[in-house]
Amino acid sequence: MAKTSLLRPLAVAAAAAVLAATGAVPALAAGTSATAALPVPDTTAVEAALQATRDAGAPGAFAVIRDHGVDPRTRSVALGLADLNGTPMNSSWRFRVGSNSKMFTAVLVMQLAEQGLIDLDKPLRDYLPAGTLPTGWTMTGRQVMEHRAGIYDHTNDLLEQPGEETTAAFEARIRTNVYAPRDLVAMSVRHGVQYTPGTSYSYSNTDFVLLGLAVENLTGRAFPDVLRERILTPLGLNDTSFVVPDQRIQGPHVTGYLTNDDRSKPLLNSTEQTGSWVWAAGAVISSADDLDRFLTALAAGSSGGLVKDDSLRQMEAALPTPTTKVAYGLGLRRISLSCGDVYGHGGIVQGFNTQSFTTPDGRRSVVTFANASNNGSVTQGLMNVLEPAFCGKAPATAPRTSFSVQDARSQDARSQDARSQDARELPVVDDTRI
């Protein structure tokens, strides 16, 4: 049975007071109308998408929809189990956020750019430890952040062995192995540059391993320390940590399960893993509350305390990807919904599956999660949460638009209702491989 909670303004006001004490409550984005009504989330459709996620093989799933501003409230829908021992799913517990980590790494890089320590339009190799990238690799920091650098994704070598089950690959090379970040880059470099930088898009975890190395090189400090000092402590993200190579998740947390390639075999508890294989590209541990706080601060630009307005504009300047309705900026993914664009990221790391997005003005965030990975149908279920969570119920009929002669003459023209439904469907995005 679904567990649905609605925190009314008094409760959220109390939470806001705590956030204010930590300096973590940003103003709304410039030019935002604080009185404009947000669409009422369609929690029935959200629950249906979460149930489909469970039906696809996830023990449990949840969605947390949080509104800020004039009418603050939180809607939470949780289904199923947090572990196979029978513990109900809990949307306040911690989990591995996978590639949502890229947003944190991108913010650190933008902060260093604001300080003049890195020029994003110069070769990234100039800001890395000597020898990290070969001479002649001229891809810029901006191209690397946009996944347009032509850098091979090293995780292909770790996970995509032909004929080998995902669970076997996990046990052999992921769970307990400890990789140095430069060794991950070396795996990638052996494949050479995949295309002329800037001419194409290809999602690569190695891109953000390189950016993490740049953060360390430019600050002279370990990546976890920089992350804590520049983001986690200022925002009061007490549930968020980066503990590579410690395999454990401290405190109350959801158990993650890896889907076996042979669906007749049981799910594998993959909660404990070093995280070193994705490092700055995917090893952050967090919670729905902390992801909301981070996204809201980021969307506020200068007043949010993370990046300046100009840096945020650069991060949001997303370019098209081969996936319809999906574009990618500087560590931020843009998804086009029927009611407008939202910004954030997805994250899939062995056993954990997350999508976290916010409206451009930061007034609504959605974090949706399932404790199973390596299952495209689970990821699709979570993607299907975003439209009803942000945009509410679908109209009974689609508004009439202009039609071409070809449309009018088509023998198999779809109905307006079908056209409206298509407009609200989202594809699975390109970080599902991990």
Task: Write structural notes for this entry.
This protein has helices spanning 9-21, 43-55, 101-114, 141-145, 155-159, 166-174, 181-189, 205-219, 223-235, 288-299, 309-316, 376-391, 405-409, 416-424; strands at residues 3-7, 60-67, 73-80, 95-96, 257-258, 268-269, 285-286, 319-320, 326-328, 333-337, 340-349, 352-358, 364-370, 372-373. The chain has 14 helices and 14 strands. It has a single domain (3-424), classed as Beta-lactamase, CATH 3.40.710. β8 and β9 (326-328) form a beta hairpin. The protein is globular and about 55 Å long. It has 434 residues and is α+β, with helices and mostly antiparallel strands. The strands form 3 sheets. Strands 1-3-2-13-12-11-10-9-8 form a 9-stranded antiparallel β-sheet, sandwiched between helices. The model is unreliable at 3-33 and 398-420 (pLDDT under 50).
